[in-house]
Amino acid sequence: MARNSDGLILIIDLSRGDLSEQLKMIIKELNTTNIIVTERRRKVEVEMKENGGMQVVCFGNFDGTPDNVKEIL
């Protein structure tokens, strides 16, 4: 369920003194199952134009070319 969510709640035991180690362990375990919590997801919007065209807008870093976008669509 975490792979399809927009957010996660992580619970850390405050009675233990190693809070940053607990957080690092939780993030490491999530990363081993391909759940990446430290990288922000990119947002892509596709807007259909009245004249039959489309406009693709990417918020965030996109390492690709317009041809890459065409292949994905």
How would you portray this structure in words?
- The protein is 29% helix and 16% strand.
- A two-stranded antiparallel ribbon has the order 1-2.
- The chain is elongated and about 60 Å long.
- It has 2 domains: 2-32, no CATH class; 43-72, no CATH class.
- It has helices at residues 19-32, 66-72; strands at residues 43-48, 54-59.
- It is of the alpha+beta class.
- It starts with 18 loop residues before the first helix and ends with a helix.
Query: What's the main sheet like?
Result: 2 strands, antiparallel
The share of residues in helices is 25-40%
> In percent, how much strand structure appears in the residues?
15-25%
SSE pattern: HEEH
Average pLDDT, rounded to a whole number, is 79
Radius of gyration, in Å, reads 19 Å
Structural class: alpha+beta
Can you count the helices?
A: 2
Strand order of the largest sheet: 1-2
How many discrete structural domains? 2
> Can you tell me the overall shape?
elongated
From the N-terminal CA to the C-terminal CA, the straight-line distance is 26 Å
Q: Which stretches are poorly predicted, pLDDT < 50 over at least 5 residues?
A: none
Say how many strands there are.
Answer: 2
